[in-house]
Amino acid sequence: MPKRDKTLKRLLKDMDREEKRLFKDAVKAKEDYNYPDAIARFQALVNSIFDSAERCYVLNQLGEVQMSAGDVVEAKHSYRHAVTVAEQVMLTEPLIDALCGLGEVYRVLGKPEQAMESFNNALEHARKMKDDEGEAQALAGIGATYEDTEDLDEAEMHLRQALKIAERINDKEHQAYVHANWGNVCSDREDDSDALEHYEKAFKLFERLDDKEGMAWMMGNIGNVFRESDAEKALKFYQKALAMNTGIGNLKGQARDCNNIGNIYRAQGDGKKALEYYTKCADLAHDVRSYETEAIGIYNQGTVYVDWEQYDKGIDCYEKAAKMFHEMGAHEKAGICESNIREIKQVTSSKKTTISGGGESGITIGPGGSLVIGPEGVKIEGNVTIEGDVSFEDGEAVIGGDGEIEIEETEEEK
User: For 227-349, CATH number?
Assistant: First the structure.
């Protein structure tokens, strides 16, 4: 029996009848993917339990469910609470689990330095206590964080160590987690065949564990492998993942799947559907406070607007995404947004628009110029030239001459 299963058995033995009932109901709700009910029951237990070991274990369970539901901020509070209690009474096993949970929180928030600190702290405690399960968990988290920061050699080294331990102690859950993240490393190296092999191994392990959240995660990752070579096949995997995550109420997973589906539609030139799914992604992620996914969804909305040459809307999305990335410490991603904004402004400022009515009548708007006609009249700024028979009446520009009105955009010579 794994060490943590023995711990759970001992804790249940020490609980009174009402606490046991509430705990079993919470676990059942978690297994049924009824996250709101599970969170409510675990929270009630936290408020009623006085034993420190029991409280730490329940707090870690609460944090895990909150992460699954996508409520990252509340999960951070639960794991921090567990760390505080465990340190006060020197409970090493729940401390390791809480530190690893906190590491996952920081990964989702885009804070790799803090994630690495939590995982390394957990690893130190696990090795000191000869806790193999905790060591595998911490090593896998470190490997995943190195993958986040694109240090792929370090990522693979730590994942390999984690897998060796997880296989030795027959820990299927962490074997699946390691294969999933090892697949990401292979994908980053553009080694699609190895990535697919690891994702399929992870899927089979999650399937054996009846972990639908993990299965949906792997469906999405397998879709990523086929995205460039077979878009329709990728789309089918993304849609299956979305259906499974919708069925279990995993809003965070749904947001990720919607973003992936949006990427396919944009690549196929269907901007309308792409925007629809990117918007769903951002809205779902916002609801569960998964800020990085929300920022990605908003950024991708901006890419569609830029494709449509609706540059003001594109810039607005990029600015919102950049602000969010900066707030979570993901400054490189924010820099990409800001670079896109500069590029758009450079392109649009170097264009000249001519509106001609034929003959010598017309309006020319050069680089840096603007002409706004609205209910309050006409506002002209910068490099604007008006020639010939042009008048402004009732919020419209009237241009005289014999020809049709046409709009011509040409690049200004630099």
Answer: 1.25.40.10
